[in-house]
Structures are given as C-alpha cells and as structure tokens.
Amino acid sequence: MVAVDEVNQQLPGGVQIEKSLDAPLYGSSGKLESLDFVTLIMEVEEKINAEFDTDITIADENLLSKEKSPFSTLGTLIEYLEDLLKEANA
C-alpha cells in the first residue's frame, strides 16, 4: 500500500506500520498516535478515490466504537475498503 509507505516516511523511527494483514493500526495494540492514524486514513481515502474514480468516505465516527473495528488491523481495513468500493459501484 502506497499510503502506508507515505505515512511511514512521516513517522519517527521505531514507529512504523508493518505491511502485514495482521499489523495493528488502531486500538490498544496499535502503534499509531491519533494524528498518525488520521493521516493514514486520509492518505488511504485519497489514493482509493483517485485510483477508482470514486468519492467514498472511509472514516465514520461510529466505526471506531464497534467491537470489531475495521481500523484494528491492516487486513480489516482492506476488507472494509473492498466493501465500500462494492457499495459505491453497485
């Protein structure tokens, strides 16, 4: 994911997002500070909208409080993005 690479360049050493489906993003096991997490979501949203010529919004205040947040790992984020793109193209 290009967005992960771009955010990793901005993060301090030792606080990098792994390019693994199990890599924690948000929550108690996540490595990202709030601002870094928001930056990642904005980068992903920008890249998705540009590549797929759509205008989806990834962040939703209700998603962060769900028991299984789509933002908990890189894998859950990818699954959530796939669902959003399917809905946008339906």
Tell me what you see in this structure.
There is one protein chain. The chain has about 90 residues and is mostly helical. It has helices at about 1-10, 35-50, 75-90.
- Beta-strand residue percentage: under 5%
Determine the oligomeric state from the structure: single chain
Class computed from helices, strands and strand pairing: mainly alpha
N/C terminus separation: 25 Å
Poorly predicted sequence stretches spanning 5 or more consecutive residues:
none
Helix content: 40-55%
| Biggest sheet features | none
Summarize this structure as a short list of keywords or feature phrases.
single chain, 90 residues, mainly alpha, 3 helices, globular
Topology overview:
Blueprint: H1 2-10, H2 34-52, H3 74-89
Helix pairs in contact: 1-2
How would you briefly describe this protein structure?
With 90 residues, this protein is mainly alpha-helical. It is built from 3 helices and no strands.
